[in-house]
Write the structure tokens for this entry.
Amino acid sequence: MQLLIHPTGVVRCVYSEDVNLAALGRLSIQRGSHVEPTSTGQWTADMFPVNGPILGPFEIRTEALSAEVNWLNEHWLPGS
């Protein structure tokens, strides 16, 4: 889990339960994507909430979730 700590004390990250984030202070949690099945039984990760692309399709949901986290860590978190 990557934590991006701004000089103002604001901490940003891709949510995970690896760390008790509530211990850091008041939380503001926002959706980063929508991982949904397609009409053909595949999966996509729509990164629209963070102005990103639609990733996929993937054969299984786990692949879509992994792609979602990778995209957020590479494109959204550093741009925070």
